[in-house]
Specification:
With 153 residues, this protein is mainly α. The protein has helices at residues 8-27, 33-39, 42-56, 60-82, 90-111, 115-138, 148-152.
C-alpha cells in the first residue's frame, strides 16, 4: 500500500531547490535569513533519501564507495579551491551509511542466532557513535556541517 505524497524524484528536486536557496542566502544575501531558514529543509530530505538508498540498494558496498568517493573528491576540490578544512556533508553521510550497514549486519547475525558476533558489533556500533560524538564536540580539527547530528539523523 502506497501512501506517500511525494516520489523520491520530487523530494530530490525540492531538496536541490531549497539547498540552492540556502547557498544563495549564505553567499549573496547574508542579510536576509529567510533564505537560510528555507534552505535548512534540504538536509533532512537528503538524509531521508540517503536512508532510503541504504534500505533499497542491491549493492551495499558500491553504494558506500560511491558516496565516500564523492566525499573525498569534493573535500579535495573544496580544499584546493578555498583552503576550507570543514568537512563537506558527504563525510557524515558516508559515516551514516557505514553505521546503517553495521546495524543491518547486527540484525542479520541476531536472526542467525550468532550472539557473540552480534554483541561485538553492538559494542562496535556504540563505540563508534561515542567516538564520533567526542570528535565532533571536543576537537577543532574535524568540523562537520550539522555536527554529529548529521550522522545521527
Amino acid at each position: 500500500m502506497k501512501f506517500g505524497i511525494f516520489s523520491n524524484n520530487v523530494l530530490k528536486i525540492i531538496a536541490c531547490i531549497t539547498m540552492l536557496l540556502d547557498h544563495m542566502g549564505f553567499i549573496l544575501f547574508p542579510e536576509y535569513p529567510i533564505f537560510r531558514i528555507i534552505g535548512r529543509i534540504s538536509f533532512p530530505i537528503f538524509a531521508f533519501l540517503l536512508a532510503e538508498g541504504c534500505y533499497y540498494t542491491k549493492n551495499k558496498l558500491r553504494h558506500f564507495i560511491v558516496i565516500a568517493g564523492f566525499a573525498v573528491v569534493m573535500q579535495t576540490v573544496l580544499f584546493l579551491a578555498t583552503k576550507m578544512t570543514d568537512f563537506n556533508i558527504f563525510i557524515p553521510f558516508s559515516i551514516s551509511i557505514a553505521l546503517c550497514y553495521l546495524v543491518d549486519y547486527i540484525e542479520r547475525f541476531i536472526k542467525e542466532k550468532r550472539i557473540l558476533i552480534s554483541i561485538g558489533l553492538v559494542i562496535l556500533l556504540i563505540s563508534s557513535l561515542i567516538l564520533f560524538y567526542f570528535i565532533d564536540a571536543y576537537t577543532t580539527y574535524f568540523f562537520m556541517n550539522y555536527g554529529i547530528y548529521a550522522v545521527y539523523l
